[in-house]
Amino acid sequence: MRIACLQFNPQLGNVAHNLRRAETIISRAETRGINLLVLPEMAFSGYNFNSVNEINSHLEPTAAGPSTVWARSIARRLGCYVAVGYPECCAHPPSSPLGLMSRYNSAVLVSPMGNVLVNYRKHFLFSTDESWAEEGPDGFFSGDLPDGLGRLAVGICMDLNPRRFEAPIEKYEFAHHILDSKADIAVMPMAWLTSQPAESLVDQAQVPDADTLAYWTQRLQPVLDQGGQGQSGETIFVACNRTGTERSACYAGTSAILGVSKGNVKVYGCLGRGTEDLLVCDVPGLGKN
């Protein structure tokens, strides 16, 4: 199986620029044989909105806005599954009180034929999300992919953390979801922050953020303890992060494709903290390489 992560630096609110940037990176990369392409959280809108008023003009209808249109187009062109994060608005039924609108931090998964398979709504919200979004009510996602690609689990960024940073750190909610769903692949679009100074994105652009990578691995501890429950005994963890800065926020990059089995983590590939690139890795045991 060939998995790709598109790591780049979206500009806040500049959807047209961000779409062009993603296309440019893809056009320069070797994309033959990719089975699954993953993009960051809120990839084309940017992430660091401070209020409902700020984000309102960038909200997209459920699986029907610019992010999904792009995902469907690129999925057909490359013949692969595509997962991308976007800010969703969803109208309640006309019978609901006051005709309220719901807003979610979401991710859509599209098939190689361009069909929308999954619309996942972020279950654990970060403080930035809480300024405009509701918590996804349905929990983390899991489901089967066709073509022998196995069982998929989906979360978004903060879903990897303890809920609201209030739950016990050893609860490992998303890692247990991976185990309980017997997932072969866990996909997480991210807008993950770094504790390193913004200068490091330039001075050490090609160097992964070791603290971030170590933390992601630590949050998968139950999978490390018990081993992957999918077909191969190894769970593939795909973290597609963004890079760059927005206002005071500095993002960690370090998009990674990891193989997690009992007592072992294999790094199939990892990008630097400031790199804009397409990471492509062959992962044995699922689908066709």
From TrEMBL:
Specify one Pfam family.
CN_hydrolase
* Database matches in InterPro entries: C-N_Hydrolase, C-N_Hydrolase_sf, Nta1
Q: Which GO terms describe its biological process?
A: protein catabolic process
Annotated ranges, domain CN hydrolase: 1-285
- Which PROSITE patterns does the record match to this protein? CN_HYDROLASE (PS50263)
Task: Give the molecular function GO annotations.
Answer: protein-N-terminal asparagine amidohydrolase activity; protein-N-terminal glutamine amidohydrolase activity
Q: What is this protein called?
A: CN hydrolase domain-containing protein
